[in-house]
Specification:
Helices cover 76% and strands 1% of the residues. The two termini are 41 Å apart. Strands 1-2 form a two-stranded antiparallel ribbon. The protein is mainly α. The protein is globular, with a radius of gyration of 22 Å. A hairpin with a 3-residue loop joins β1 (75-77) and β2. It has a domain at 278-499.
Length: 499
C-alpha cells in the first residue's frame, strides 16, 4: 500500500513539475471551453464577440510562446511531451496560423451567413491549434497518435461546417475515410516499434539502438506504415487524394489553415522521428523509401497542377508539391538542415495565407470559380493583381521574395549532404527539385497571365475593402523583408534550437 502511495505521489509531483511547460495548451483549452459555453446563449451581442474572444485566446498564447519562460532547456512532461525550442517555434507558427484563419473568416461571406455553429467553428480552430501544439511537442508514439487524432477530428468537422453545401459534405466524408485508413495503418506500424524497442519514446538512445539490433526488413515495413499517417497530415503521396476535394469544398479560411498548420506540425513530427534513421548504413531502405516518396510527391504535385482549371484545385496540388520539397529536405542528414526547414515553413505560412486571401476576395467579391474568370482582373484591380503576383513568385521560389531563400536553403543542404555521402538519391532529389521548380513556374504563371494579359469581359467595378487590402500587405511584407534580411529569422531559429 505504501509503495502504491509513493508511486502515486511521485507521478503527481512529476505532473505538477511539468505542468508549466503546457501553459500554451492550457490557455487554448480554457478559451475553447469558454467559447463553447458562451455559444449556448442566444444573445446576438455575445455571438458577435465570439471571434474576438477566439482571437484574444490565440494572441495570449502567441505572446506566451514568443516570450518563452514557461520551459527551461527542454522540459519533459512524463516522457510524452518535450517543450524545447523546436516545439516553441512550431507553437508560434500555429498560433499565427490560427490568428490569420480567424481574420480571413471575418472577411468570408459564406461564414458571415453561418446561422448555426459559429461558436463551435471558432472553438474548433482553437482545438486544432491545440492539437498542432501537442504534435510538435510529442516524443511518444502514443502521444503522437492522440495529437494527430485531435487535429484530424477538428479538421473533419471544420470541413463539414457548411452543412448546406453538398460539395463540403462530400469533401468531409472523403476526408474522414482517408483519415481513418491512414490512422489505422499508422497505429499498426507503431505497435511494431513498441515490440522492437519496448518503449514508445522515439527520441531516446535506447530506441535507436534497439532498432539497429532488430530485423532490418521488419523495421523498414514498420517505418513505412507509420509514415502513412504522417504523409496524410502533410498531404504527401500516396496519401494526398483527399486534398483536391477538401480544398474545393471547405471554406477558404479553413483551406488556408489546412495548407499550413497540419503540414508544419507533420514535418516537425517527422523531423523528430527520422533522427534514429539517420545512419544510412543501418537503415538504407528507410532512406530509400523517403527519397522515393519525396520524388513521387514532387512529380505528382507539380505535373497534376499543370492540368487544373480551378484556382482551388491548382493550389491543392501546389500544396502537395511543397510537401515533396520538405520531404526532400528531411533527407539532408549530416547538415544543419533543421534551420532551413523551419525557415521554409515560416515563409510558407505567409505565402499560403496571402494567396488564399486573394482567392477568397476573387470568389466572394468577383464571383471567380474558374481560372478563366480571372481574365483582366489585374488591370481592373491593380493592387489585387500585384499582390497575387508577389505571392505566386514567392511560391515558385523566385527573387526578390523569401520563397527563393527558402528553396535555396533546402537545395544547398541537399547538395551538402550529397557531397558528404555521395548518395545518388540526394542528387536525384536535387535535380528533380530544380527542374520541377520550372514546372511550378508554368502553372503558377497561369494566374498572372489571366489577370494581366487577358481582356476582362465584365464591366463591374467593385471596391475591395480596406481590411482586405491591409491583410494582403501584412502577408506580403515578411516575404520581401526576409529576402533581403533572412538572417533575422535564421538567427532567431538558431537561438531557439540552442535552448
Amino acid at each position: 500500500m505504501n509503495e502504491q502511495a509513493a508511486f502515486l505521489s511521485d507521478k503527481i509531483n512529476a505532473i505538477l513539475a511539468g505542468a508549466g511547460s503546457l501553459l500554451p495548451e492550457l490557455l487554448l483549452a480554457g478559451f475553447f471551453l469558454l467559447l463553447v459555453t458562451l455559444d449556448l446563449f442566444k444573445y446576438k451581442t455575445l455571438k458577435h464577440l465570439l471571434p474576438w474572444l477566439a482571437l484574444t485566446g490565440l494572441f495570449a498564447t502567441l505572446v506566451v510562446q514568443i516570450l518563452g519562460g514557461y520551459t527551461l532547456g527542454g522540459t519533459n512532461f512524463l516522457d510524452l511531451l518535450l517543450s524545447d525550442g523546436l516545439a516553441q517555434f512550431g507553437g508560434i507558427l500555429f498560433s499565427t496560423a490560427g490568428i490569420f484563419t480567424i481574420l480571413l473568416s471575418l472577411q468570408n461571406k459564406q461564414l458571415e451567413h453561418l446561422k448555426h455553429g459559429r461558436g463551435e467553428y471558432y472553438g474548433l480552430i482553437l482545438l486544432l491549434v491545440l492539437g498542432l501544439n501537442l504534435m510538435a511537442k510529442s516524443v511518444n508514439l502514443l502521444m503522437v497518435f492522440l495529437a494527430i487524432e485531435t487535429v484530424s477530428i477538428a479538421s473533419y468537422i471544420l470541413t463539414l461546417i457548411l452543412k448546406d453545401n453538398r460539395r463540403s459534405v462530400e469533401a468531409g466524408l472523403k476526408y474522414i475515410l482517408y483519415g481513418s485508413l491512414s490512422t489505422g495503418v499508422m497505429v499498426y506500424g507503431m505497435s511494431f516499434f513498441y515490440g522492437f524497442t519496448g518503449t514508445l519514446n522515439y527520441t531516446t538512445e535506447g530506441f535507436a539502438l534497439a532498432l539497429v539490433q532488430a530485423n532490418g526488413l521488419l523495421v523498414t515495413v514498420a517505418a513505412i506504415l507509420v509514415f502513412a499517417g504522417f504523409f496524410f497530415k502533410i498531404s504527401a503521396a500516396p496519401f494526398h487524394f483527399w486534398v483536391p476535394d477538401v480544398y474545393r469544398g471547405a471554406p477558404m479560411p479553413v483551406v488556408a489553415l489546412f495548407a499550413t498548420g497540419p503540414k508544419i506540425a507533420g514535418i516537425l513530427v517527422i523531423l523528430r522521428f527520422v533522427a534514429p534513421f539517420a545512419d544510412s548504413l543501418a537503415f538504407p531502405d528507410v532512406q530509400l523509401f523517403l527519397g522515393i516518396a519525396a520524388l513521387a510527391t514532387l512529380a505528382i504535385g507539380n505535373f497534376t497542377a499543370v492540368w487544373q482549371k480551378t484556382p482551388r484545385r491548382l493550389m491543392a496540388f501546389s500544396s502537395v508539391s511543397h510537401a515533396g520539397f520538405l520531404l526532400a529536405a528531411l533527407l539532408a542528414f549530416g547538415t544543419n538542415y533543421t534551420s532551413g526547414i523551419l525557415f521554409y515553413l515560416a515563409v510558407l505560412l505567409f505565402m499560403n495565407f496571402g494567396i488564399f486571401l486573394f482567392l477568397q476576395i476573387a470568389e466572394d467579391d468577383l464571383g471567380v470559380e474558374q481560372l478563366e474568370q480571372l481574365s483582366g482582373l489585374g488591370k481592373a484591380y491593380p493592387y489585387l493583381g500585384v499582390m497575387a503576383l508577389l505571392y505566386l513568385l514567392s511560391l515558385t521560389g523566385l527573387p526578390p521574395l523569401a520563397g527563393f531563400i527558402g528553396k535555396l536553403l533546402i537545395f544547398t543542404n541537399i547538395w551538402e549532404a550529397y557531397t558528404l555521402s555521395s548518395n545518388p538519391m540526394l542528387l536525384a532529389l536535387l535535380v528533380a527539385g530544380i527542374l520541377l521548380t520550372g514546372v511550378a513556374l508554368f502553372y503558377y504563371i497561369k494566374i498572372p497571365f489571366y489577370l494581366f494579359l487577358k481582356r476582362n469581359q465584365t464591366e463591374e467595378n467593385l471596391v475591395i475593402s480596406l481590411s482586405n487590402k491591409l491583410l494582403l500587405a501584412l502577408f506580403a511584407l515578411p516575404l520581401l523583408l526576409l529576402f533581403f534580411k533572412p538572417d533575422l529569422l535564421l538567427n532567431w531559429i538558431d537561438r531557439l534550437l540552442a535552448q
